[in-house]
């Protein structure tokens, strides 16, 4: 075995040991079953992910953990040593992190086990499980979740492989399918919704509160030829606005940065369209800020948690929409995108089968290694005997014996090795591996991880 093979086997052995009593789970909330007023209570800011992962790492039944927290979902992916105990610990984590005390009504209500976890994450990374089908930003969010878990040391071999497979799946969907090429973002969907509500925007005035990534995407759309007549942007700090305006933007003359964040209420009341996208922990526009409005104002709040007081909608002439309204109003291209999703689903299931193949390798790799060790020991023993009996006449005699014996081993082991690796049924795979162990008298005691891996992985993946 050369150095590279040894290194690969060390990693494989580590993954096998990790999976010996491992169960893959995901638990949390997402837009399928929770409206925004509940999801926003569970949002974990990017600056707090490190501390959240540290808290999960202290849970006694959690071996690996990663967190995806976006406007659509907050989900904990974990490898646990006991399913029920692990899920209970993750639920307690959610109870501790939510920003309200009503624990009975606000609980994580989404959980999946084993193969369903991989399928779910692959669909998330592909944009097939987003509020806006084909949403483009989720890939960077999955990548960020993976990076945070690696940096915190909570992503071991199983979650590491799972997330890398999900990212590869997402990349394929975006590069190989029409859905990927037509991918949209929540920001672009917000602008599309504004056009449905207000009609053509070229005679409308717009205000954007915030200067983060999503706000900047909105601004680029509104600065386009079919965008707003004038665009005002305000932010708590000026650095992001200065960096943004330094980009190669179209129609810069329409962009107005002369106002301060403190002017936001007055500016909002005077605008046709207001888009709010900040990371503020509370409301940046409140009902008390508006006595009344003499003109029709459309406010779209794409922040999670929400940054606009819901009671603002009670004021005459003010119409308020938030992230959950986007999917209901942006429907022009929905049927087309859903038809195109079939291409993406095919890639998702191909990626799932590749991940299953990797899982199966955790079952068969130890058996193959032990089998080869056993045959190699027999070969070495008989080679020594043959060398003693043979009066070598040439310096190459020993090399010839070596080459012949290795060729015999490879030929003998080729079919059982390929047969093991190609078997997709877990029960049959276990039976074949155990049969090999009995037939070749492979020592269970010398490789306890192997048998534990068989028993555990078969139980957890069926």
**Which segments are poorly predicted (pLDDT under 50) over 5 or more consecutive residues?**
1-9, 445-462
Task: Summarize the helix and strand pattern as letters.
Answer: HEHHEEHEHHHHHEHEHEHEEEHHHHH
- Which CATH class of the largest domain is shown? Alpha Beta
Structural domain count: 3
**Principal-axis shape:** elongated
Strand count, sense and barrel status of the largest sheet are: 6 strands, parallel
Strand content: 5-15%
Q: What is the mean pLDDT? A: 82
Cα end-to-end separation: 33 Å
The counted number of beta strands is: 10
CATH topology annotation of the largest domain: Beta Polymerase, domain 2
Helix content: 40-55%
Side by side, the strands of the main sheet go 7-6-5-8-9-10
Q: Report the C-alpha radius of gyration, rounded.
A: 29 Å
Gross CATH architecture of the largest domain? 2-Layer Sandwich
Structure in words:
The chain is of the alpha/beta class and 462 residues long. The protein has 3 domains: 21-183, Glutamyl-tRNA reductase, N-terminal domain (Beta Polymerase, domain 2, 2-Layer Sandwich); 186-329, NAD(P)-binding Rossmann-like Domain (Rossmann fold), CATH 3.40.50.720; 356-391 and 407-461, no CATH class. It is 54% helix and 12% strand. It contains 17 helices and 10 strands. It has helices at residues 3-19, 36-39, 49-57, 83-97, 115-125, 138-152, 157-176, 178-181, 186-198, 213-222, 239-245, 264-270, 323-329, 334-389, 397-422, 426-439, 448-461; strands spanning 23-30, 62-69, 73-80, 110-113, 205-209, 230-234, 255-256, 273-276, 297-301, 318-322. The strands form 2 sheets. The chain has a 6-stranded parallel β-sheet, with helices on both faces. A 4-stranded antiparallel β-sheet has the order 2-3-1-4, sandwiched between helices. Strand 2 and strand 3 (73-80) form a beta hairpin. The longest helix is centred in the last third of the chain and has 56 residues, at 334-389. The protein starts with a helix and ends with a helix. 40% of the residues are buried. Residues 1-9 and 445-462 have low confidence and may be disordered.
């Amino acid at each position: 075995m050369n150095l590279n093979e040894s290194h690969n086997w060390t990693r494989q052995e580590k993954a096998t040991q990790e999976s010996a009593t491992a169960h893959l789970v995901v638990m949390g909330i997402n837009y399928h079953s929770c409206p925004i007023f509940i999801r926003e209570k569970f949002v974990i800011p990017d600056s707090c992910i490190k501390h959240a992962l540290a808290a999960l790492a202290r849970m006694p039944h959690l071996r690996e953990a990663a967190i995806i927290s976006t406007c659509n979902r907050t989900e904990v992916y974990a490898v646990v040593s006991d399913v029920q105990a692990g899920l209970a610990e993750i639920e307690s984590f959610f109870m501790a992190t939510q920003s309200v005390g009503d624990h009975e009504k606000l609980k994580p209500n989404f959980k999946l086990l084993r193969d369903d976890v991989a399928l779910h994450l692959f669909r998330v990374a592909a944009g097939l499980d987003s509020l806006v089908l084909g949403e483009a930003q989720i890939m960077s969010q999955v990548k960020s979740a993976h990076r945070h878990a690696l940096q915190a040391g909570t992503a071991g071999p199983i979650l590491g492989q799972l997330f890398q497979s999900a990212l590869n799946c997402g990349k394929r969907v975006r590069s190989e399918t029409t859905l990927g090429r037509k991918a949209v973002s929540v920001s672009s969907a917000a602008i599309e919704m504004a056009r449905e509500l207000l009609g053509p925007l070229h005679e409308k005035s717009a205000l954007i509160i915030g200067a983060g990534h999503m706000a900047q995407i909105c601004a680029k759309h509104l600065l386009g030829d079919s965008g707003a007549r004038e665009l005002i942007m305000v932010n708590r700090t000026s650095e992001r606005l200065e960096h943004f305006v330094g980009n190669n933007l179209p129609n810069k003359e329409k962009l107005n940065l002369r106002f301060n964040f403190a002017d936001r209420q007055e500016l909002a009341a005077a605008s046709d369209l207001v888009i709010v996208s900040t990371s503020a922990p509370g409301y940046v526009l409140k009902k008390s800020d508006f006595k009344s409005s003499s003109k029709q104002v459309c406010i779209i709040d794409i922040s999670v948690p929400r940054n606009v007081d819901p009671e603002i909608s009670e004021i005459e002439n003010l119409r308020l929409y938030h992230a959950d309204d986007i999917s209901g109003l942006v429907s022009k291209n929905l049927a087309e995108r859903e038809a195109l999703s079939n291409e993406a689903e095919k890639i998702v299931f191909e990626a799932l089968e590749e991940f299953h193949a990797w899982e199966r390798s955790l079952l068969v790799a130890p058996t193959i290694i032990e089998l080869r060790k056993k045959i190699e020991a027999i070969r070495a023993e008989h080679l020594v005997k043959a060398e003693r009996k043979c009066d070598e006449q040439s310096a190459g005699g020993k090399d010839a014996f070596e080459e012949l014996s290795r060729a015999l081993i490879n030929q003998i082991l080729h079919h059982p090795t390929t047969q093991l690796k190609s078997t997709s049924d877990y029960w049959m795979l276990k039976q074949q591996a155990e049969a090999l162990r009995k037939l070749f008298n492979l020592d269970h005691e010398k490789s306890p991880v192997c048998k534990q891996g068989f028993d555990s992985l078969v139980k957890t993946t069926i």
